[in-house]
Amino acid sequence: MWKLNQSLFGGEEEGRDDFLAEDSDGICSLSPMQRVYAFAACLLVGLVCMFLSLIVFAKPIKFAVVFTCGNLLSVGSTAFLIGAAQQMRMMFDSTRVFATSIYLGCVILALICALWIHNKVLTIIAIICEICALIWYSLSYIPFARRMVSDLMVRLCDTEL
């Protein structure tokens, strides 16, 4: 924290260079227990936002904005545990880059439908796509989960029984 104050309010030039040269772990000086508390708080706020969005379900535009914010808070809460840079590396790893891209695209699509197009039907469709993309993205962190779900869906939707 001292380095942050020193770099913001002046001081010696080499202190500024050292502060900028450090990785992100130097900026965030939270203890491991504080990181767990921050993770839990961010996750809880995200889940509360997603739950409270059901109250305004009759107004799909407000629902989409509140739900998407809660969704992003929940996904972003893990940055407190593993760090933002590590989370970005994991999100764009070769095994889940497509799931991440589809999820982020659905989030953007839901916000565009809600805030600019103002079409309730498109907003609901975008939110359904966002939920499906979040589930598929979450399954990418569980070994063989996407393959199991794919096989299950093929068996359930197979018409040749």
UniProtKB/TrEMBL annotation:
Parts of the chain that traverse the membrane: 36-57, 63-85, 97-117, 123-145
Cellular location(s): Membrane
Membrane topology: Multi-pass membrane protein
Taxonomic source organism: Rhodamnia argentea
Its biological purpose: May be involved in fusion of retrograde transport vesicles derived from an endocytic compartment with the Golgi complex.
Family: Belongs to the SFT2 family.
Keywords: Membrane, Protein transport, Transmembrane, Transmembrane helix, Transport
Protein name as annotated: Vesicle transport protein
Lineage, top ranks: Eukaryota, Viridiplantae, Streptophyta, Embryophyta, Tracheophyta
Name of the gene this protein is made from: LOC115742363
Xref: InterPro entries: Vesicle_transpt_Got1/SFT2, Vesicle_transpt_SFT2
